[in-house]
Amino acid sequence: MFNRFTSLRSKIKLVFSITLLLLGLLFIGSIKYDHAKYDELNDARERAIAHYLYNFYLKYGKIDEAYLESQNFSLIKDKAKVVQIERYFKEKGKYKKYAVDTFRLQRVILINNDRFKLFLKNKNKPKYPLKRIIVFTIVFILIIMLYFWVIRSLRPLTELKNKIKSFSEGNLNIQCASDRHDEIAEVANEFDHAVRMIRELLQSRQLFLRAIMHELKTPIAKGRLMSEMLPDEKSKARMHSIFERLNLLIDEFAKIEKITSKNFELKLHPYKMSDLVEASIDLLMVENPSRLITLERKKDYIVKADFELITLVIKNLLDNALKYSTDKHVIVHIDTDHLEIHNKGEKLPLPLEEYYKPFHPSKGGLGLGLYIVKSILDIHQMTLTYRYENGENIFSVK
What CATH number labels 170-264? Predict the structure, then answer.
C-alpha cells in the first residue's frame, strides 16, 4: 500500500487532495463561525429588545409593536398557538422569566415578568453566505484547474518513460526531442541526444565488424580454392574442414553481434531436443563424434526455440565441455524438461555468474562462450545452472 504513494503522480494527487480537504474544512469552519457569531449577536439583540419592551411598558403601559416590527419581531397573539408554545416551554423546563427556543422551525422568545407575559416571534434569518460561497467556489475551481495543468505537464514524462522502455527492448529508432521549455523537456532532449550517440556508435561498430568479417571471407574463400588443388585427398579434406570451420565461426560472430546489439528477431518453432543436440554435434565438425559424445535419451521433449541460436548454445557448451574434459569425453542427458551436459574435470573456481562476463580473463575460464550462451538463453527465457558432483562438471539447460 505504501508503494502507491511513491510515484510522482501519486504524490501530486495526495498534495492536491489534502489541499481540497483543507479548503473544505476551512469553508465549513467559516460557515460555522458565521453562524456562531450571528447567534451571539442575535441573542444580545433579543435581550436588548426584551429590556426595551419592559422599560417602554413601565413608561407608557403598553407594548411598542411598531418597534418590534422595525426589528422584524412580532407578537404571537393567536391564543391556541400561545397555549401550545406555553406547554412546549413547560415540557422542556424553560418556562421562566426569559427563555428562547425553537418551536416548529421558528425562533420564539418568552418574556414573563411582573408586568406582562409575551411570546415574540423572531423573524430574522442569518444571511445566505453568497459571497463566501462564490470565493470558495472560485478557489476550488482554480485548484482543480491547477491540478489538471500539473498532471498534463507530466504527460511528456509518461511518453518519455515508454520510449525509454522501448529503447531498453532494443528499439534504437526512437525520437523523444521536445520543443517545450521545462525540466522534463531538458531530460527528453538529453536522452534523445544520448540515443543518437548510441545509435551512431552501434552503427559504426556494426559497420566495422561487418567490414572485418567481409574481409576475412575473401582469404577463406581463396584458401578453400587452394585446398582443392592439393594432391593428397586427406590433406585436402582436412584443409577444407578448417576453412569451413572458419566460415562457420564468422557466421556465428555475425549472429552474436546481432544478439548483443538487440537487433535480432527470433524465429520460434517446436523441435525435439534430441534433434537440436544432434544438429549441434554436427556444427562441432569433429571426426568420429560418437567416440567423443555420448547421447542418452531418458525422456525426449519438445522445445520452442530459434533453431540456429539454440544449436549455437548447445554447440558452445559441448565445445567447452570437450575442451576442459580430462578424458576428452562428454555425456549428454535428455530428460523430461531439461538438458544436461557432463564432463569430468576440475570444478569451476568461481561462481557461474562470473563466467557470463565477455572475455573472462581467468585461466581456464570459459571466456566468450558462456557470455554467448547466456545472451541467447535470456532471449529464449531459459536458464543455465551449474553443479559439481562426483568429479563431474554438470551444466543444465531448462
Answer: 1.10.287.130
Residue 250, Cβ density class (10 Å: 0-12 exposed, 13-18 middle, ≥19 buried): middle
- DSSP-derived secondary structure for 349-390: SS-GGGGGSTT--STT--THHHHHHHHHHHHTT--EEEEEET
Q: Are 101 and 85 in contact (CB under 8 A)?
A: no
CATH tag for 268-397 (out of 3.40.640.10, 3.30.565.10, 1.20.140.160, 3.40.1190.20): 3.30.565.10
Q: Which cell is 223 given?
A: 584458401
Are 159 and 176 in contact by the 8 Å Cβ rule? The answer is yes
Tell me 2's DSSP state.
G
- Asked whether the beta carbons of 377 and 384 are under 8 A apart, the reply is yes
- Dump pLDDT digits (tens) for 185-210: 888 888 888 888 887 777 776 666 66
Q: Which three cell numbers stand for residue 107?
A: 425562533
Helices first, then strands: H and E counts in the chain: 11, 11
Measure the CA angle with vertex 126, ends 120 and 128; round to 5°: 150
DSSP result, 216-238: HHHHHHHHHHHHHT-S-HHHHHH
**Domain edges within the chain:** 2-122, 170-264, 268-397
pLDDT, tens only, 353-398: 877 776 555 554 445 567 778 888 888 889 999 999 988 999 999 8
